[in-house]
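Problem 3 from the worked examples.
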Amino acid sequence: MATILHLETATTNCSVSIAKDGEMLVLKENNAANYSHSEQLHVFIKEALEKASLSFSDLDAVAISKGPGSYTGLRIGVSSAKGLCFSLDIPLISVPTLQSMAYQVDVKPGELVIPVLDARRMEVYSAVYNDQYKEIRETRAEVINEESFADYISDYKVYVVGSGAEKCRGALRHPNFVFDTNVVPSAKQMVAIAFEKFESNEFEDVAYFEPYYLKDFVLQQKKKKN
């Protein structure tokens, strides 16, 4: 039996789920316009445990969405997950944020899914997954142009999903591209990935694990008024 707590904080969606043996028991999330993870995450964890009639001592592992995504959001989520794992002496599981997004698409044989998270200017974080949700091109931070993902165009649909899909829509003109801007990372889709990793003992080193930022954090300073 494996009871796993899942935390998703890579974007504006503050999302928490609890699952037992790969079956989700409860989901608590709020995709606000502004990041509210510091205020909501621990409240959501407490409420999810109460709704599932569980306590912290019932948890067998904590799964965290590892990125890429918001620097601040990832720090909050990873710090919380590591703190729980340390205090409860349970393993930490990391789930690639883009892979959990790919799981939201019902991919038919031969089709591909490209999750894209909005970054700066015309840049996105992206990866390419096949119809088995296996990564066939690694995660990158890249500037979108008309040649982007040209190697993955075929006779089948290529789903481009996530907050960066609108940037891609303006540049990618092939008719087989299908765009969906409504897909956001959620703890719901972490469940299957995390359970598979638990079954294969694929755990992180709690002491040394860091989020997958992909790019260095740049502090945006306000311009001084004259």
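Problem 4, a separate protein:
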Amino acid sequence: MRASILIPYVAPVVAVAFLWEVMLNPQFGIVNTWLSEPIAFLTQARGSFLGLQVPVALLTVIAFEAWRYFPFAFLFILARLQALPGELEEAAVVDGATPTQRFRYVIMPQLWRVVALLAVLRFVFTFTKFDDVYLLTGGGAGTEVVSVRVYNFLTARDDIGASAAQAIVLAVVLVVFLAVYLRFFAGGERDQRSL
């Protein structure tokens, strides 16, 4: 079962992007056969859902990213859960804690650092994501992320200066985000080691 959960993460990005393109195709895709009217998931910038305007292509790319990189978070959280000392949970059971209380007061405090690390890593990976977005939408329909924009400035417009400037801004934002993470989440382990 665990191996099957890892399939989206280890599968080649070109293969899974092509698979999603075929599944979401408005003319012959399997997803549109289930709908009353076809939706161009990867080329439609906005669509109506329950009377609200939603960014269709952007939400599709977000769903793809979540599906593709869920196993990454799964591995981290599973490893931390397996490393939890059994005595903590046994003590909580002896003290009469309910399953909800055990989760809230015993398990979650042990997972916070892993969740924070995952948030930072996924932010960095997603913020600099190029291949998934470019393969699915080419940066069109409201999905032009910074890395795709840098690529377009460099290749389509031959504007090396603008692409370099945007890449530097991207790097600065990532360094600031990493510094915030190191300041607030990674310092606890150093404090514990010094004790």
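Solution to problem 4. Confidence is low (pLDDT under 50) at residues 191-195. The chain is about 70% helix and 5% strand.
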